[in-house]
Amino acid sequence: xxxxxxxxxxxxxxxxxxxxxxxxxxxxSTNYIMAWYRQAPGKEREYVGHWDIKDxxxxxxxKGRFTITRDSASHTMYLQMTNLTPDDTAVYxxxxxxxxxxxxxxxxxS
Length: 110
Hints:
The protein is an all-beta fold. It is 0% helix and 54% strand. Strands 2, 4, 5, 6, 9, 10 and 11 form a seven-stranded mixed β-sheet that branches. A four-stranded antiparallel β-sheet has the order 1-3-8-7, with no helix packed on it. Strand 7 (66-71) and strand 8 (76-81) form a beta hairpin.
């Protein structure tokens, strides 16, 4: 059983930056794939990107603006978001070990 907890959400102005964290606890392993998704109001859940032992991967809509990193020792994955736009407003969810976190709200608004 694995528990995922996201943190770091908030309100930011367009063009601003924000970093999210996702920490896994329980039956974790060092190099397990971890991913970020997001869901905006009234829209389907959307893939943002993921980390695996070989590389990191991103949806085209965030490529060049978002960066995923991982601290294997603390089982924590980070999502550094820059040049945010109102279209990035969503609940950001962590996914790993076939489990979902509860999400972190990111609101981009002036």
